[in-house]
């Protein structure tokens, strides 16, 4: 039996006419002109239902891959990617999304649900073969998924997020998502806490075990004498910038020590983002917004524009509120304003990278870009940084204005 008109196989590389996993052909419509031109995807909701994923995920994926702003409204089922993009290009990107976030890594069937562990890793749980495969957390979309999980269901100690209840098109018995019993969820949590080896390949599991064996070496001497010795060896400019304001009620000590540790480990090329977060947790500052001021200055080099993408999961995990975002911006302001003033012209690219990764939000960026502050740097330096950010802030305002005009 031939597939219905207007439908294609979920895996477009499969030519079997009896392949039961179907989805509507992705449709596009170009609207607007000039700087306000945009691509509307009128049937994104239907396509997403066939993939058993929230519609915002593939829409956001398109934005990440195309370097364009993506907007979505589930109530009106309106999904937009700024710019003019051909339908075939978006269909190819949809294939990539399906491969990365839908298909089982083992059997390549789309009968998967997304699980977000309490450690904020994303796993594809296959109902066809039982395999659990972890998603590549280096992709920008993973930050968005963690912050906007699918329809969730808590069980045991871990947090489990499952995709929407709509069944995969053509899948018998669909519509209801089967959950695991309490015992199996508890067991899953224990395994995840032990290293999540059951969801990794053998090579990844071995690498994780090797990393865990180094944990005993993570701690450093934090006595006053040891800290003083390390402070003396720091570059004077960086040392001054790592110190928080004098009226900090929590004291600059732990943050300063954290920044020194990150810088030392970075220069030795022996630290991962997991190591850094582990250290922040050990010091009790992983959830503190002021840790971000120090982290920006300690983890990046003059190649910050290229380096941001590699640290998106870490900053996504540590930036959890508006206050965190403001501290992150404060760290960026110090980094380019005092440590690397030659990078001030690159501030739009830096802000764009964090914005597209869903770490910095439009409202926070707009407020920051239009209000000079001397909280983190001298007032004249703050003016220079914000002056350099004007092209990006203007772009945000124009994109928002175009969207409002379109709604009207």
TrEMBL record:
Segments of skewed composition (Basic residues): 150-160
Signal peptide residues are none
GO MF, one term, reads: eukaryotic initiation factor eIF2 binding
Q: Which domain of life is it from?
A: Eukaryota
Task: Write down what this protein is called.
Answer: Translation initiation factor
Q: What is any Pfam family matched here? A: eIF-5_eIF-2B
Q: Which UniProt keywords apply?
A: GTP-binding, Initiation factor, Nucleotide-binding, Protein biosynthesis
Region (Disordered) residue spans: 148-188
The W2 domain sits at 248-406
Q: Please give the organism.
A: Leucosporidium creatinivorum
Q: Is Protein biosynthesis tagged as a keyword?
A: yes
């Amino acid at each position: 039996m031939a597939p219905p008109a207007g439908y294609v196989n979920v895996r477009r590389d499969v030519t079997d006419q009896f392949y039961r996993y179907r989805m509507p052909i992705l449709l596009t419509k170009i609207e607007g002109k000039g700087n306000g031109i945009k691509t509307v995807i009128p049937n994104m909701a239907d396509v997403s239902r066939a993939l058993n994923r929230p519609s915002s995920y593939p829409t956001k994926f398109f934005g990440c891959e195309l370097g364009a702003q993506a907007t979505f409204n589930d109530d009106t089922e309106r999904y937009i990617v700024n710019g003019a993009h051909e339908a075939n290009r978006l269909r190819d990107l949809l294939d990539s999304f399906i491969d990365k976030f839908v298909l089982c890594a083992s059997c390549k069937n789309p009968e998967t649900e997304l699980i977000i562990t309490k450690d904020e890793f994303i796993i594809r749980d296959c109902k066809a073969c039982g395999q659990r495969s972890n998603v590549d957390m280096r992709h920008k979309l993973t930050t968005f998924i963690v912050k906007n999980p699918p329809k969730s269901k808590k069980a045991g100690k871990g947090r489990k997020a499952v995709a929407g209840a709509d069944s995969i098109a053509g899948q018998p018995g669909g519509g209801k998502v089967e959950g695991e019993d309490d015992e199996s969820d508890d067991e899953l949590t224990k395994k995840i806490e032990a290293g999540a080896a059951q969801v990794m390949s053998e090579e990844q599991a071995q690498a994780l075990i090797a990393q865990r064996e180094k944990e005993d070496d993570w701690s450093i001497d934090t006595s006053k004498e040891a800290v003083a010795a390390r402070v003396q060896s720091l570059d004077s400019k960086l040392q001054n910038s790592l110190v928080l304001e004098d009226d900090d009620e929590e004291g600059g000590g732990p943050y300063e020590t954290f920044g020194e540790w990150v810088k030392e480990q970075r220069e030795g090329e022996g630290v991962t983002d997991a190591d850094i977060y582990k250290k922040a947790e050990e010091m009790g500052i992983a959830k503190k917004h002021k840790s971000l001021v120090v982290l920006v200055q300690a983890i990046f080099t003059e190649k910050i524009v290229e380096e941001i993408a590699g640290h998106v999961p870490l900053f996504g995990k540590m930036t959890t509120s508006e206050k965190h975002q403001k501290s992150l911006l404060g760290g960026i302001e110090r980094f380019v304003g005092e440590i690397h003033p030659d990078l001030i012209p690159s501030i739009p690219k830096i802000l764009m990278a964090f914005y597209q990764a869903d770490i910095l939000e439009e409202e926070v960026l707009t407020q920051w870009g239009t209000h000079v502050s001397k909280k983190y740097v001298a007032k004249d330096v703050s003016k220079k940084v914000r002056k350099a950010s004007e092209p990006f802030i203007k772009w945000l305002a124009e994109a928002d204005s175009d969207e409002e005009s379109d709604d009207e």
